[in-house]
Amino acid sequence: MTNKVEIQTVNIRLTEKIEEHVNKKAGNLDHYLPAIDEARVQLSHYKAARDAKDRNVAEIMVYGKGFTLRSEVRADEVLSAFDAAFDNMQRQIERHKGKHYRGRGDGKSAAEVVEEVFDEDTGELSPLFAKRKKFTMYPMTEDEALVQMRDLGHDNFFIFYNAETGKMNVLYRRRNGSYGLIEPELG
């Protein structure tokens, strides 16, 4: 990995032991996938968590050209949360490599697979896509999008055209009940 692992903490003191453990494991992620450009680890402690097992959160973000992988685990100890998140990240990397770096394994070319997804005769999508939706979007502010999301009963996410930035955004509800905003950028 060209860059050192960036470690951020929230309500946790970064001890030498924790830093050493995280750097030792996360610093070797490029061994599993050389295309990794950057890795970030965030370790958090939430005193107000409902369950003691949810107090410590470890989040690992891995960035490379054309991909981002994320793993988050909650546990009662910060290092056990990190270790579990690291194990999840290794599985995600293997899955990513399987999709993007190896042969398909079923003997079909990518063109054959695309033909199966889209039926040219009927112009319809195969059962891989259960539903296709088209709708008109109107520019709105983030606050208006939140109201619209609640009014429509969308519990998880809401896509909207942000009038302030002139870009598409995704408003989503986080696990703790707060909201997040995704502002995509072309790479």
Q: Which terms summarize this structure?
A:
187 residues; alpha+beta; Double Stranded RNA Binding Domain; SHC Adaptor Protein; 2 domains; four-stranded mixed sheet; 10 strands
Please give a structural write-up.
This protein has five helices and ten strands. It is α+β, with helices and mostly antiparallel strands and 187 residues long. The protein has two domains: 6-100, Double Stranded RNA Binding Domain, CATH 3.30.160.100; 133-187, Sigma 54 modulation/S30EA ribosomal protein, C-terminal domain (SHC Adaptor Protein). The strands form three sheets. The protein has a four-stranded mixed sheet with strand order 1-2-3-4, with helices on one face. The longest helix is centred in the middle third of the chain and has 23 residues, at 78-100.
Share of residues in helices: 25-40%
Q: Which architecture of the largest domain per CATH?
A: 2-Layer Sandwich
Shape: globular
SS element count, helices:
5
Main sheet, how many strands, which sense, barrel? 4 strands, mixed
- Rg computed from alpha carbons, rounded to a whole number of angstroms: 21 Å
Output mean pLDDT.
Answer: 82
User: How many domains comprise the coordinates?
Assistant: 2
**Strand/helix succession:** EHHEEEHHEEEHEEE
| CATH topology (fold) name of the largest domain | Double Stranded RNA Binding Domain
Beta-strand share of residues: 25-35%
CATH-assigned homologous superfamily of the largest domain: Ribosome hibernation promotion factor-like
By DSSP, the count of extended strands is 10
The chain-level structural class is alpha+beta
Low-confidence stretches: none
Highest CATH level, the class of the largest domain: Alpha Beta
Give the end-to-end Cα distance, rounded to a whole number of Å: 20 Å
